Amino acid sequence: MPPIDPGLVAVALIFGLPIVAVLTSHQQKMAAIIHGRNQGQNPAEIDALRHEVNELKQLVHQQTIVTDNLTQLVAKSTLNVSVGTAKMTDHTSTLNR
After folding, report:
1. Rounded distance, CA 38 to CA 67, Å?
2. How far apart are CA 21 and CA 14, in angstroms?
3. For the chain, the helix, strand and coil percentages under 3-state DSSP, each to the nearest 5
4. CB within 8 A of 9, min separation 6: which ones?
5. How far apart are alpha carbons 34 and 36 in whole angstroms?
């Protein structure tokens, strides 16, 4: 086994220990936040939020259907206008003869 360089060990300790301490502190803080969040939740509030999300989903679905219907109506009216214009052009050309 090769000898361990004491300078390398010193550098590893100088930079390694503070990094480990910071990461450990961060992990402890995050665990406290997560545990505190789970303990402080009110089941009635969660149910109310779920109900509100479901209402918003239904509203989005209804608006999507209305938008699709309007798009179809616009497409049909555009088609009718272009067909009507073509018919008018045919009639005017026969009148000019």
Report:
1. 40
2. 12
3. 90, 0, 10
4. none
5. 5
Residue-range domain boundaries for the chain: 1-40, 43-97
Tell me the CA end-to-end span of the chain in Å, nearest whole number: 109
Our separate counts of H helices and E strands in the chain read 2, 0
pLDDT at position 29: 92
Question: What is the rounded distance in angstroms from the CA atom of residue 34 to the CA atom of residue 10?
Answer: 36
Distance of alpha carbon 33 from the chain centroid = 24
Question: What is the band of 31 on the pLDDT scale with cuts at 50, 70, 90?
Answer: very high
At 2, list the tokens: 């090769």
Cα(87)–Cα(79) distance, rounded to whole angstroms? 12
